[in-house]
Amino acid sequence: MKKKLLAIISLICAFVCTVSLAACGNKPSGPVTTGTLNKDESGNVIFSNVSIKLSTIVSGDDEAPFRQIVQQFNNEYRGRINVEITNIAQDNFDDTVQQQIAQNNNPPDLIMSHQKSHMAFANNNLIQPFDSIMEESGIKIDMKDYATELAQYSSLGRENELYSIPCDAQSSVVLYNKQLLSKYNLELPTNNAELISVCTTVANGEKITPIAWSTSHDAFRNYVFTTAVLQNGGKLYKDDFYADWQSDAANLTAVKNGIASIRGLINHSPKLAQYNQSLADSLNAFLTNKALFYVTTPWTLKNVLSAYQKQNSIESLAVTKSDYIGGTSIANWFALDGNSTNGNKIYGDSHFFAMSMTVQDINKKAAICEFVKWITQNVDIGTEWAEAGHISMSKIVDASNDYLQNDLVKNYLKKFYPDINSFVCMGNTPYAKQLQMRFGQIIVDALGNASDANDASIIKTAQDNFNADVDFEKM
Question: Domain 25-170+348-424 is in which class?
Answer without folding.
Answer: alpha beta
